[in-house]
TrEMBL record:
It comes from the Eukaryota. InterPro entries: LOR, LOR_sf, Tubby-like_C. Belongs to the LOR family. It comes from Triticum aestivum (Wheat). This is Protein LURP-one-related 6. SUPFAM superfamilies: Tubby C-terminal domain-like.
């Protein structure tokens, strides 16, 4: 029985849980972002941020071959400026460079909305509680969980044992869950917290 939950693509869903290691790239002139490997040190994903793309509020997730698979941008405009939340949109990229909206993420940006959960909506809409996924815990402390609208854990983040650095952490993605989507969410959280993807 196929229990995959693709968001970007079914090809990023595994039948077994996947343990991924995230290592921040140093901030240099053309640096920033992070690299995602499996525990055998094989590159699985590459995330580029402002330091490489040259635009604030834009992120790119690539596969191990450097092919663009997910473009993420923070929504702007007057409506967004007046909102108590920031909205990020994630677009899947096909081989012709066309993109299709696959998810949106909202995070509180003012003291009025402080403490409000970070929620993710999948496109096309398939939510059960006006949202599809929620982020619990603290990204800054490298201790957060992504749950679906039924309360099931789909991904869990933690620090790498024996390494006392926020430059290395791991994410366990449950079987059937879209790993590219989870890494896209990690990229947005990284940017929100002013880390390696932000200039």
């Amino acid at each position: 029985m196929d229990n995959s939950m693709p968001v970007v693509s079914k090809m990023y869903c595994s039948s077994t849980p996947a343990a991924l290691m995230i290592r921040r790239r140093p901030m240099v002139v053309n640096g920033g972002g992070f690299v995602v490997t499996d525990f055998s040190h094989n590159v699985v994903f590459i995330v580029d941020g402002c330091g490489i793309l040259g635009s604030k509020g834009e992120l790119m997730v690539k596969d191990s071959d450097g092919e663009q698979i997910l473009f993420i941008s923070r929504k702007g405009g007057i409506v967004q400026a007046l909102s108590t939340r920031n909205k990020w949109n994630g677009y899947s990229m096909d081989y012709q460079g066309k993109n299709k909206l696959v998810f949106s993420l909202t995070d509180p940006k003012s003291c009025i909305a402080k403490g409000a959960p970070v929620r993710i909506h999948i496109e096309p809409k398939r939510h059960c509680n006006n949202w599809d996924f929620e982020i619990c815990g603290s990204f800054a402390d490298r201790n957060c969980t992504i749950i679906d609208c039924t309360g099931k854990i789909v991904a869990q983040m933690g620090k790498k044992e024996l390494i006392e650095s926020n430059d290395f952490y791991h994410v366990t993605v449950q079987s059937g869950c879209d790993q590219a989507f989870i890494i896209g969410v990690m990229a947005v959280l990284d940017n929100i917290h002013g880390e390696s993807t932000r200039c």
